[in-house]
Amino acid sequence: MRLSNYFTPTLRETPAEAEVVSHKLMLRAGMIRKSAAGIYSYLPLGLKVIQKVEQIVRKYMNEYGAVELLMPAVCSADLWRESGRWADYGKELLRIKDRHGRDFCIGPTHEEVITDIVRNSVKSYKQLPLNLYQIQTKFRDEVRPRFGLMRGREFIMKDAYSFDINDKAAEKSYKQMHAAYCKIFESCNLKYKVVEADSGAIGGSFSHEFMVLADTGEDFVISCNSCDYSANMEKAVTADNYAKDNEKILPSQQVKTPGQKTVEDVANFLDVNINKIVKTLILKTDDDFVALMVRGDHEANLVKLKNYLDVVNVDFASEKEIEEITGGAMGFSGPVNLPLPIYADNAVKYIKNFVVGGNAKDVHLKNVNIGEDFTVKQFGDFRTAEPGDECPKCGKGTYVITKGIEVGHIFKLGTKYSESMNATYLDKDGKQKHMIMGCYGIGIGRTAAAAIEQNHDDAGIIWPPQLAPFEVVVVPVNTNDENVVNVAETIYLKLLKKGVDVVIDDRDERAGVKFNDADLIGYPLRINVGKKTLKEGNIEIFIRKDKELISVKREDSVNKTLELLESLKSSGK
Q1: What global pTM score does this model have?
Q2: Which of 1, 141, 319, 458 lies 20 to 30 A from 502 at CA?
Q3: Sequential DSSP letters for 330-397
């Protein structure tokens, strides 16, 4: 490929819309262009990167027994109503009507469609196990699309779905996909971590996220510093090992706290430790209200409560709803005489003589105790884990927090969809049973963006060779010198014959412009062919990752390039 007839609209300045590193650099390197909020066109360089990620994904999905197909992007609402997700999925689902007034959606994921295909085609246990996947454009109407390809509304995803006869077989399929994903991200030369995760709107009994580690990541990963336990912030378990108060129980009393709404305000005003303040949150579930109590120095985890209650949604009640339920103002809610079921984090059950809201404006209650002043329906792990918490898995280490970018998610679905959509098979005894399902997603664009977040410097992108739009760029430094041009052409053609993904920058531009573009775009190797070095029989090879410029004999240039590429491909594994 020759850059003189290629399309590389690089930018010197960062567009104002760009936020994170990958967004800025993909725009500047001429890889993507914004079409609408959260919707991007992939320009030639960007498309090449996407295709390379797809090639790696296909290689290992196929190796681990999955079979590729392609499903429609537009999905019938009838299937989504069967599964129950038409009403449950929320505003992220882009609903449309055809000319006949029939309901459809742009698929954000394809559990319903694949289950319909399989239930109409698979009848016997002899046809299972089965794992089908596709690489396709999806759409989720994010309330706040941002960060370029990291959180767009339209995106490319690999989604796979497994069907098995029982839980044991389903766990085998799950482990195969787990292994395949590890191979995929290792082959992309990415540093990543596998973490326990919440299944969210997809559903299922358990799931794991694959997180690319990056300081600029938008997600937080909780890990033990002593064992291999890792989880995302929504899922990370907290140990029930809190110290018990041995204080004598005191009678509760009402105190005036004018204008003291926050935990810190109340603690300072009453001169008590913040862990003696207990927050009472009024929450709205699918069709009811509940209260959740957490210690003042802890954060409530609504996802954990949602999963415990087995509901679709848990959210904060509005100010008006709080006033109607408690009779008091927002910021002063408390458990005493509260007409709601009360759930409390485990830490709360060990505290005595604590402070709560008084369900009246500018009023709190001191010396409140469980069993004396109110009752709790259920204690549980309902708070967000924090750095320094004891690891519940090994009991030795403590939690540390790192930043990451979710690039893959695997789920054990169980019979969530096969039961609602009646996807069954006949077992060996001729009995009809529901198939056990799993689903497995990889964000193709997110993987490319995550690679940039993990590999960049002030000059631009530093692609691993496996993902680079071109592995090598040959730069004739003096395009008006016939010998320079001929040598550059010779090296370029020899590398092509060796199967190297190489481009020659034959544009009529100054060397500085070519070098800057090469650094910005992030070609792993740049071969400089210049008049001065050729006089000595040498050419230069610039290694983008190490910023190292080495001089080699002209006749050794191809072999040295192949050697360096191989070294770069294996360096991150």
Answers
A1: 0.84
A2: 458
A3: TT---STT-SS-EEEEGGGGG--SEEEE-SSTTEEEEEE-BTTTB--SEEE--B---TTPBPTTTSS-
